[in-house]
Amino acid sequence: MDLYTQVEGGIKAAMLAKDKLRLQALRGIKKEFIEAKTAPGSGGELSDEAAMKVLVKMAKQRRESARIYTEQNRPELAETELAEVAVIEEFLPKALSEEELEAELRKIIAAVGATSAADMGKVMGAATKALAGRADGRAISAKVRELLK
Fold it and tell me: Are 54 and 32 in contact (CB under 8 A)?
């Protein structure tokens, strides 16, 4: 079952359960999926890979908003954003732990043949594609820098 269908099923379940916060988050996801589907160049289709990118972007935006709300002493708004992140993350693959990330990056570095920090661009290109949705770009970048020293 593709992600779009899963989200639609989640919307129905949230409506039946009268879970307003979950319903709001799922409707937001569906809205972003529809926008991605109808964007120029998409061909009216939304692959799971494209949907995953949309979900990662949404989760990142919500986390950043929550951080800003916390800094501005608006905890009620931050809680709402973090609750939406939790719903979004249900549709993302399980995030890699620090050790798993390092192991995956070592494999990618070996496959690319990187030996120094000058090869970071090659490694980052391969790593961001291979680890999409499972690791944050900043975490990947920091770990690659550490491994290529």
Answer: yes
